[in-house]
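Q: What does the predicted 3D structure of NAD-dependent epimerase/dehydratase domain-containing protein look like?
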Amino acid sequence: MSPQTLPFNPVSPPGSWILVTGVNGYVASHVADQLLQRGYKVRGTVRDPSKAQWTETLFREKYGQGAFELVRVEDMTVPGAFDHAVKGVSGITHVATVFGHSADLISSVVSANRNLLASASRERTVRRFVYTSSSEAATFSSLHEHKHSKTRVGVDTWNEEVLRRIREPSPKAGFDTYAASKTLGEQAVWEWAEEQKPGFVVNTVLPSVCFGASLDPKAQGHASSSAWPASILRNEFDRFWGFLQHVIPTGAYGVDVADVALLHVAGLIHPGVQSERLFAFGGPFTWNGIIAFFRREFPHRSLPGDLPGGEHGVLEIEPAERAEGLLREIGGSGWSGLEETLRRNVEDLV
């Protein structure tokens, strides 16, 4: 496959090595794929390479021998864990995060982020560092708590609500902790950059709910949030509704995972993107809207009935226009339409 040409002079030329952490994940695998399409070489970290061989097979078949390699990083929270992985790379995109419900989740995320930044600062070849944050670092998906309100989200907006909630005696388990880990994790990245003033540019990407195709549905399955539309088409949405009705009860903003990956590429190589938070919010969706679309597309399928829930608040995403402009500059066409994204999400099932 011939690499795609770029409409600008990239910070790092094609052929440079880029590190992608957690490369077997839903978003990270797409980041790797978009970089490889543009002629970059990708080194991907995983905890256990033996369980991620499908990435080597897939990318070797698509881009040839020597364009992609796996490296082991078993514990991101250990100081120096990334020292070997960053050797000779021009850019780093830190997609991997620590998951769980333990009391030390937030400190583990912050430690992992600072560990990778410290390793990057010791490698003179590094020119860009992109951190995968989350829409939850700026605002709650739980829009039912802000019914009929219009909330402005700007480049300086943080999820202050979740930081307040985790300080309460009994914060909501699970999702509040996750949202707080992404909020404080991203803040720790910016604080480190301000304190250390490294020789590379730091950018962050804040994805909203990601839908779209898996790169390898057989090996990867419907990973992360792509499982939710797939479960609707399979009429198995009740597996997730118990969780989602407390987190995303009516709808939120959704984005194609490939668009998210392209924004990571922009943060890595676009000379005009410096010290920016890139908001990958795409457009609004509702669960009932997704169900209705699948009813139209697949009229003979047995699908869930309409879910409870009324109106939800409106988010005004001021930085979305900037992000959409970058998608066009990097070779995309702006935000992918929701219906197009949903078709890609379930194409292996139909």
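A (community wiki): The structure tokens above were generated from the sequence. The longest helix spans residues 175-196. The first strand starts at residue 17 and ends at 21.
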